[in-house]
Amino acid sequence: MKFFPLIWSNLKRKKLRTFLTLLSILVAFVLFGLLSAIKEALTGGISMAGANRLVVQHKVSLILLLPESYKARMERIPGVELATHQTWFGGIYQDPKNFFMQNPVVPDEFLSMYPEFILSAEQKKAWHETRTGAIVGRKTADKFHWKIGDKVPIQTPIWSQKDGSSTWTFDIVGIFDGKEKSTDTSSLFFRYDYFDEAHRGDRGQVGWYTVRVKDPKTSAEVAKLINKEFENSMAEVKAEPEAAMAQEWANQLGDIGLITTSILGAVFFTILLVTGNTMAQAVRERTGELGVLKAIGFTNGQVVAFVLAESCLIAVIGGVLGLGLAWLIASSGDPTGGMLPMFFIPRSALILGLGFSAVLGLATGFFPALQAMRLQVAVAIRRM
Amino acid sequence: MSEPTKTNEALVSVDGVEKVFRRGSEEIHVLHELNLKVPAGEFLALMGPSGSGKSTLLNLIGGLDRPTRGSVSVGGERLDGLSERVLAAWRARHIGFVFQLYNLMPTLNAERNVELPLLLTHLSKAERRKHVAAALEVVGLSHRAKHYPNTLSGGEQQRVGIARGIVTDPTLLLCDEPTGDLDRKAGDGILDLLQALNRQHGKTIIMVTHDPHASARASRTVHLDKGQLGDEPVT
Question: What stretch of H or E contains A293?
Fold first, then answer.
């Protein structure tokens, strides 16, 4: 610590240069943070997916419906513990920009299938007792300032009610939280029995099934059995692990990992060159001073440590500020208005970012430090 | 690396030293078979024209450079066998440097500059402060402790340089043209200070100068010309 004022004073030597270097590092880490948040939002479902859950959809397309009667048949298949269904409602609240998912579900089965959604016993009871009741995730409730007891009108272009109205009004009876920070709490769920009875069209149709297997190791085997069970029926199915489905969806947007890594690689390489050049210049300007330090007894190792400490300090300050700013931006919520409900910077990305900043500092300081170490004292002290 | 070899010579002993610099294929002989003894407590002036090898000799005595042949001993320790790391630690303990252009850190104030050599010791912050205050007191700059080099006159900056040189109470103070960049009045002030350090505090000082007025303050003057010592008239 006693050397810190010496290191710190060097950063104050050329304030504009230090500021601009800091700014370039800061921008790089803001980009790193936001790309991490986008990557998490697009691929988070894969890691969130339950290892013991399968998704069963119509073999032709997800938009085609399946009979509700499949549930009982699925539950009879060996290895299946529970099956429940959801249906895409596709509703809009006030404005199409306010996107969030709303699905009709069977409350008990649904909550049992998704233990990551935390709902109090009292609210569960209220959901059972209210036919038009709906539960909503904390994120959406906060966004629209909804509270229990509110009546929420949702308009859907897909499902009309028997009276022809496309506006469905739900009573908010519960607000659920996520077990993990990464749990998506942007959706609204309402009762399937109410939906099935109230909508115009055929009864007993559902969108897709989620099946819980008894042993995750048998998932692939159980999926095959499910597919086989409905072979040659009027609605053949495709069963696959939940993670695989999420991955398929993410893959539609391309290899997100490769895209983000490529962008970050280019940014960091540029920053490495800019900062490395700045550091080398700063060391060249201080040749005489480094010579004096050596003359009064500082060892080569100490001089190297000074230069590295300086480059690491500037990189870490820039990194922390950049990640902090990115975190603030991400904390203000999904910038797309609902398309990226899990938009946040995961802790692992923050730690990785800090690690990157230290590596950036070491990498940019390495050659200038070497240059400082090789200085011949007698020559250097004449260059003040 | 190697332990210093103990001898019973004068404080500084330069024995048969040669220094050759290489510039491409050309060899430049800067010092030739040079011998010099400096007893403890002496104020020695090294005089000579530019390029005579004064600063090179000073660098060898201060352990900043190594002789091509011969040996340099200070306080009985031969410097030529010491590793870079040991030599750096030795310099920190035994040598105080005063440079012609002061060589202060522009980003540190006077007291921080003076404190620099003490950062290499195990002294606490409070002890370092005490030593810094004492050194600034000796050079008469206590009132300018918080000032940065660019707000100090040349004479004041050199006093800070001297305070930095003596703050660790080194065995030997090496001054390379300490008045070379100062006007006569400021230069006299610096020479008064060096003389006082020698006479009142018993510091052994070797001063490189080409100014007879400065060398007149020393207790002995030796002349160096083309890498060889000339007469050593006692002043």
Answer: helix A287-295
